[in-house]
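S.,

Sequence below, as promised.
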Amino acid sequence: MTQRKVSLTGIKPTGEPHLGNLIGAIRPALQLADTYEAMYFIADYHALTTVRDAAQMRHYSRSVAATWIAAGLDTDRITMYRQSDVPETFELAWVLACVTGKGLMNRAHAYKAARDRNAEAGIEDLDAGINMGTYNYPVLMAADILLMDTDVVPVGKDQSQHVEYAADIAKSFNALFGETYRLKVPELVLPAADAGKTLPGTDGRKMSKSYDNTIPLFAPSSQLKKVVRRIATDSTPVEEPKDPDSSSVFQILEQFAAPDVVADVRERLKAGGMGWGDLKNILFETLDQQMGPLRERYDELMAPDSDLDERLAAGAAKARVRAGEVLGGVRAAVGMG
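The prediction came back faster than expected:
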């Protein structure tokens, strides 16, 4: 039997999950398990570049795991682990740093963006406020990828540089030490045209924590209803025809309601007679019905006495087996073993 290729997905724990995460990232990523040996890790050490509160870090890390499991990740079939539970990552990161050119790091998008913000603010020292974690971020990401002998990494276009850097760094290592051991060069997998969709937020812009316009994934019914009611709409009277595709409320409904419901609502909006309030009611009922079971499962997993941490520990144990094999080859190649 042919062994399936390995797909690796990293999830940064930096905030509460929202509907945009479910549609744009979680569901498309979980579909990979049908094709690949899918592995998912919680990038908690990556989050340390911005998260400075220990209790918050612990909460967000558990929340990410609970979210993905509630959304359908089966930890009996799929490996999920915390980055911090695989210490081999950080030994490999140092080896990779020693074969990575500083010029490559200078061109990293996140680092350049931080410098650009300083320039726009008129700050003379363009590196002011930039920590070395941000600067070294691509090397640690490369270690995450290469340590699992990863074949493919599914990311959006805005994150593709991380995979390209991992491939470049692997090639640099192989050029130096390849006669003894070669790191697998990963490939980038971009989402299909109909995957990785974005949802509008309550203000009409892309749903994002940075815009403070998100609809929480596991909000209780009362809170969910209030948030849905806040979604921005225009002043078109109830009796007037409306363009469904220009409505944020309708665009969200399209991603969650059954096709016949979407088609019916579309025709009613175009014909006139359906107000925005009616549409928001339909959206709330649809979301509350679909998110209810997920919310219940999430709450169970987040409870202090749940088996969530045991699931993550089991995932880390499996991941460390793979990591040990790769690191053993690397250590021998560089003369450490």
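The chain has a mean pLDDT of 94.

Coffee later?
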